[in-house]
Amino acid sequence: MIILGIDPGIANTGFGIIREVKSQKVKAKNNFRCLGYGLIQTSPSSTTPERLKKLNNELSGLIKKYRPKVLAIENVYFFKNLKTVMAVSQAEGVVFLAAARKKIPVYELTPLEVKMTITGYGRAEKSEVQKRVKKILNLNEAPKSDDAADALAIAITCSLKRA
C-alpha cells in the first residue's frame, strides 16, 4: 500500500511517499520503501490564494502520480503564534480537500505520536527524526529538509499505527 505523508505549511509543505512491503520472512512485519519526498514551496510575495492554489496543484499532481491509498497528515493542536496556526490550518484545508476529491482516507497524527513512534521519545529533536527516517527507509542520506523528513516519519507512523 502507498501512503502519502504530509507536514503542512503555507510556505513549505513537506511530503513523503512510502510503500508498505510485507515481509515474507517475518510474519506481520512491515518494511518500507521510499518512493519520494520533498517540499512544495510557495513564495512569500504571492497572495495567500495563489499560495494555496500552488499547494493544491502540486499536491494533486503527487496524488495523480503515486496514487496513494492513504494520506497521513500532521495535526498540530497547539501553537504559540496565531498567525502561524491560521496559515497551517489553511494549508491543512487544501490537503483535506485534495484527498476528499480522490476519496483518499486521511489519518491525522500529532507530532508527539510521530516522534514517539519513530524515535521512542516524544520530545526528540528534528535531527533524531531525520536519522531514524534514514535508517528505517534505508536511505543513503537523511532528508536535508526537516519538513520532508517529518512527512516521511508521518507516513511511517501511519502505517505502523494502522497495522
- Provide the gyration radius in Å: 15 Å
> Given the C-alpha coordinates, what overall shape results?
globular
| C-alpha termini separation | 12 Å
Mean pLDDT: 92
- Portion in strands: 15-25%
Element order, helices and strands?
EEEHEHEHHH
The strand count comes to: 5
Helix content: 40-55%
What's the CATH class label?
Answer: Alpha Beta
User: Could you say which structural class the secondary elements and strand pairing correspond to?
Assistant: alpha/beta
- Runs in which pLDDT lies below 50 for 5 or more consecutive residues are none
Strand order of the largest sheet: 3-2-1-4-5
Q: Which key phrases capture this entry?
A:
163 residues, alpha/beta, Nucleotidyltransferase, domain 5, 23% strand, globular
Explain what you see:
The protein is an alpha/beta fold and 163 residues long. The chain has a single domain, classed as Nucleotidyltransferase, domain 5 (2-Layer Sandwich), CATH 3.30.420.10. Helix content is 47%, strand content 23%. The protein has 5 helices and 5 strands; from the N terminus they run βββαβαβααα. The chain has a 5-stranded mixed beta sheet. α1 packs parallel to α2 (82-101) and α4 (126-137) packs across α5 (146-162).
